[in-house]
Design a protein that fits this description.
mainly beta; Jelly Rolls; 1 helix; 10 strands
């Protein structure tokens, strides 16, 4: 016999885990997906999972965008922190990876998803627009990241559409 256990809630990791640089966006560190423009082929929660994606279904992928604009998702960090390194992974996405990516961020005080989504249009740029490659790990260090101070939320913009396997935001809690 098989059993399933589903546990609902918000992860509250131990405070001593945050004494060094960690992935502040990781699911195990309390990261959360708030909203997305499109969840046709995958949910943005997959971006927060540990390890690399095991296939294209283990990531966030949007349908082809036929109108002007781009796709996006809003993610909450587990703890407020200053970002020093970003990793974007397009593992398994070959003909359907985003052409470019831009990340905006803010130290938001509300947790109302509708308000956050509306505000996210005007957040400052954490990672300027970057060209992406298929099936690759893209690492961006301090010299490519704008220092916005401590942040709590990010808006990951994929231009125009496509799929990401993982998003990692490394930094220190502040």
């Amino acid at each position: 016999t098989r059993f399933r256990l589903r546990v609902y809630g918000i992860v509250q990791p131990s405070e001593d885990k945050f004494t060094e640089e960690v992935d502040l966006l990781a699911l195990e560190n309390g990261g959360r997906a708030i909203a997305a423009s499109d969840e046709h082929y995958g949910n943005p929660w997959a971006l927060l999972r540990p390890g690399r994606g095991i296939n294209m279904g283990d990531g966030w992928e949007t349908r082809r965008r036929r109108v002007p604009g781009n796709e996006w998702c809003v993610l909450a960090l587990g703890k407020r922190g200053r970002i020093s390194r970003i990793i974007l992974d397009t593992a398994h996405y070959k003909g359907n990876y985003p052409d470019r990516c831009l990340i905006q961020a803010a130290g938001a005080t509300l947790d109302n998803s509708k308000s956050l989504v509306n505000q996210s249009l005007f957040w400052e740029t954490l990672l300027p627009e970057q060209k992406l490659k298929m099936d690759a790990i893209h690492t961006f260090d301090k010299d490519q990241i704008n220092d916005l101070g401590p942040i709590t939320h990010v808006r990951v913009n994929i231009i125009p559409d496509g799929g990401l396997s993982r998003v990692r935001l490394f930094g220190r809690v502040e």
